[in-house]
Amino acid sequence: MSNAADLAALRASKDLAIEAHGLVKRFDGTIAVDGVDITVPRGSIYGVLGPNGAGKTTTLRMLLGIIDPDAGYRRVLGSERPTEVARRIGYLPEERGLYPSMKAYEAIAFLAALRGVPLAEGRARARTMLEEYGLAHAADRQIRQLSKGMAQQVQLIGTLIHNPDLVVLDEPFSGLDALNQGRLEQLIRALASRGATVLFSTHVIAHAERMCDQVAIIAGGKVPFAGPVDVARDRLRPQVRLETRVADGLWRAAIPAEARCDVRATGNALWYFTLPETGVEPLLRALIEGNAGILSLSIERAGLHDAFVAIAGEAAARALEENREEAQSVSRKGRR
Amino acid sequence: MVPERLRAAWVVARRDFVAVVFSKAFIFFLLGPLFPIVVGFFAGMIGASVQHDLDRAVIGIALPANEGDRLVSARAALVDTMPGGAPEFQVIERVRPGARFDARAALKNRRLAAVVSGTLAAPVLTATKGHSDEWRGMIALFASHARSAAPAPLADVRTDVVVTSAANEHNGQVVTAQAGQLLLFLLTMLLAGMVLSNLVEEKANKIIEVLAASIPMDALFLGKLFAMLAVSMVGIAVWASGYGVMVLIGTRSIPLLATPAVGWPLFLGLGFAYFSMAYLLLGSMFLAIGGMANTVREVQTLSMPATMMQLIVFFLASFALARPGSLIEWVAQVFPISSPYAMLAYAAQHTGVMPHVIALAWQGLCVALMVRGGALLFRRSVMKSGPARPRRRGGKIAIEVAG
Question: What is the pTM of this model?
Fold first, then answer.
C-alpha cells in the first residue's frame, strides 16, 4: 500500500484515539523528534517508553497541540487540531504546576473550567473527588501549604475532573512513592476500564510492562517499535535453561550450535540457548529419545526490558536504566 | 453560544482578577497614589511658607524730611487698585538736607528688595534690573500721588464681562485636551506596566503547559489583558471615589477646565473608551514582551524601555496637539499606540463623533491583531512551536523546515 493510501486508511479509522504519522520537530537545528508514527486505539493503555531526551515529551506536546510539528500528520480524537478537542483531553505535564495561592478545590475547579466545566459544578466535583482520594482535609488549603505529593495528586484530580476521553500523562510516576505509584496504576486501569484512552510516557519499563496494552519505544527521536507489548516481547525468541545428566549424546544435534554449556563437577551439564524456531516439541523429543537425562528445563519468554534492548539498542537501554536509578534516588531524597 | 476563545479568556480573566484583587498587595496598590498626595501636601506647605517669605519684598525709603512718610501714605491709598498688590514700603532714613544717602550700600547691608532715594520730585530707584523695570512705574505713580496736595480721584472704569471669547474658548479647550492627555498618560503609565510581569507567574509555576494544552494561547493573552484592565478600573474607581470624598469635605477642588467641544458627558465617556484602548494596546504589547522574560529580574530590565516608549508616544501626541491639521497630527491619530491620546485631544477641540467611532474600531482591530501576534510570538519563541526558522550559517541561509 502506498504512503497516501496508508494515510487515507489512518484518516478513515474511527477506532483510534490518536493517529500520528511522520511527526518531525526540530529545536534550533537539533532534531528532537524524527518521523514518529503512533496509533493509539480507543480505550487502551498506551505507553511511550524511552530514556530522558529521547523525544517523549516533545511527541506528547505535539499530540496535544501545545507545539506544532515541523512536518507530519496528527489526528487526536478525530480532530487534526488537538486544541479543538481539548475539552475531551486531560493532561498531566512532566513539570507539574499549579497556582500556589489557590486553594486545592479552587485549583481543581479552575482546571475544570479551562476544559469547559462550569465553575460551580467544578467546585462541587472537586470536593467530591478530593474526598474520594482521601484529600478532603486539604480542600481548603492553599497549594503552597500542601506537600509535593499532595499537590501532585491535586493536579492529577484536576487532570481527570472533566471525565476526559483521552488522558495524557507525562512521566506520571516520577516523584511518587511506591504506595502512590501503586494507586496511580490502579487509577489508570480504572480509567481504561470505563472506556478512556490513557497515554503515558515513562522511563520505567516495569510500569509499561505491567499496564500497557501497547507501547511505542522512542530512542533518539525515532520510534523503532510501536505496537502491542506481546509483539515487542515476541521479537525475541524465548530463552532455554536446560540441565542434563550427561554432556554429550546424539541429542546434541537438537541443541543450537551457539548454546553455552557449563559442565559441573558431577558431570551434569547446564545449557543456555535461544529456543529454536522449530519450537519446544522437537527439542524435547530429541532429548528424551537420546536419553539426555533431563534434570530441569525452563523456557523463559523475553521481558519488555530485553525487547527494549533488542529494539532500541544497548545504549538506549543503559540510558533508561540510569534514568530509573536517578529517579529512584531523587524520590528517596524527596521522601527523606 | 459564547465562542470558545471568549469563554476561555473569561476563565483566565476571572482567575487573574480574583487573584489580584483579593490579595494583600492590592491594598498597597490602591494606597499607592496616596503617597504622592501626602508628600505633595507637605511639600506644598513647606513650599508655600518659603514662597511667602520670598514674596514679602520690602522697598526701603530714604527721602528728605517727611517725604518718605508721604510716599508710604500714597502707597497705602493706592495699593488696593494695583493688580497683584505692591511691596511693603519701609522708611529707612529721613535724609537731612544736603546729606547724601548711599542706596547701594543700604541694599547690600539690609534685606531690602530696592531702595528709593533722591526726592519725591526726582526719585531714584536702586534695584536689580528686573525689579527696577517692574517697579519703576509704580514708584512714579506713588510719588506723583504723594506730591499733589489734593490727589485726583481715580477714574471709575465700568466693566463689561463676557463669558468667553473665541480665542479664550479655543485656548481653554487646548488646555482641556492637554489635561485629558496627561491624565490618560499617567493612568496608562501607572497601570499598563503591571502587564509586563503577567506571564512570569505561569512560566515560573510551570502551569503554562496545562494552559497551553487546554485553551488557545490568544485566549490566555486576552483573558490576562482584560483581567488587568478590570483591576485597573477598580483602582481608578477607588481613587476617583477618594478624590470625590476629598472634594466633598473641601480638602480638594475640581480643576476648572473649559468645556470640551463634544461636551463633558461624551468627553468622559470617550476618555473611558480611550483609556481602555490605550491600556489594551500597550498591555498587549507589554504582555508579548513580558512573555519573553523568564524571571522577574528580566521583567524589571524590560520595564525601563517600556516606560520610555510610553513617554515617546505621549510626546508624539502632545506635539501633534500643538500642530492641528498637520501630517504629524494625522500620524498621531492613526498610529495605534498614540491614537487614543490624539483622539481624546481631538474630542476636546472638535464636535464630530464619527471620527471617534472609526478610531475606536481601528484601535479595537489593532488590539485584536496585537493579541494574536503576541500569542503567536509566545508560542513560537517560548513554547517553541511552529516550523523552524531559516538559520544563517557561514553567510549562507540553511532552510531547516522539514516536510
Answer: 0.74
